[in-house]
Amino acid sequence: MPKFAPNLYHLFTELPIRKRFAAAAAHGFDAVEWHFPYELPKHELKALLTDNGLQLVHALMPVDQSVTWGLAGQPDKIDEFKRSAELALEYAATVGIATLHPHPGQMPPQYSQEQCLDVLVSNLDYFCAQAASLDLTLVLESVCTIRAPKTMLRTLGQAAEVVKEVGRPNLKVLYDSYHVRNEEAGSLCAIFDEFQEVIGHVQIANVPGRHEPGVGDVDLQYFISHMHECGYRGWIGLEYDPLKDTASSLSWLANYKGIRAKLSK
């Protein structure tokens, strides 16, 4: 059965952040994503997860709020990247983050694409080496130009090339259906099949509005079934914005055993 993890940056936002963990557990989830776990002290975060029987399966690398998107591909922010990596590893070691996204950031105007990619490869190699003792996978995400016009990595193929160049076993790609559908030609299933061996995490949201399955142009439940039939057993992050509210946006999960009973309460 597929495994789902709501993203607490997008779901349960009707509640303050500390209450979102209990809400996720009450709806039958065993895991969550959260972009910014560093907003809470790491031991408090661990207690929230433990008390609610949850795993933290995906987070972003910490980044200064004045910086757009990320640090990993920024030639003038290498020291800042390393400090950010250190903080991320502290949290991963304490709370057990399963996958972490070190976003390269958007293209800075003063550097070439080649310069940025060279720095990205070097930074990721460093981060992977530092993370080698942890049960942690770094995942590199491609981002559609609708969301980030100056994005450094637009396609899964570009992200996969970076992963190949780094050559570390704890670095993979993140497959996000929203970004893939907005940026790439071909079906979601065909693109998944092409890159399945290097996919370390999956997130779903529909297009065009980044809403839940059943609201939009793509049959995401068919895509979920396809991934499962192909042997994907990792977590599927629910990184969508509910059309109305969180509770109603989860009604499609009644089709999945283990979630159904808790949703019906």
UniProtKB/TrEMBL annotation:
The entry's keywords: Isomerase, Pyruvate
Domain Xylose isomerase-like TIM barrel residue range list: 21-255
Active site per database record: E141, E239
Alphabetized InterPro entries for the sequence: HyI-like (IPR026040), Sugar_Epim/Isomerase (IPR050417), Xyl_isomerase-like_sf (IPR036237), Xyl_isomerase-like_TIM-brl (IPR013022)
GO molecular function, a single term: hydroxypyruvate isomerase activity
EC id: 5.3.1.22
One GO BP: glyoxylate metabolic process
Pfam families: AP_endonuc_2
EC class: isomerase
Record-linked Gene3D superfamilies: Divalent-metal-dependent TIM barrel enzymes (3.20.20.150)
Xref: PANTHER family: HYDROXYPYRUVATE ISOMERASE-RELATED (PTHR43489:SF6), ISOMERASE (PTHR43489)
Family: Belongs to the hyi family.
Protein name stated in the entry: Hydroxypyruvate isomerase
Originating organism: Pseudomonas chlororaphis
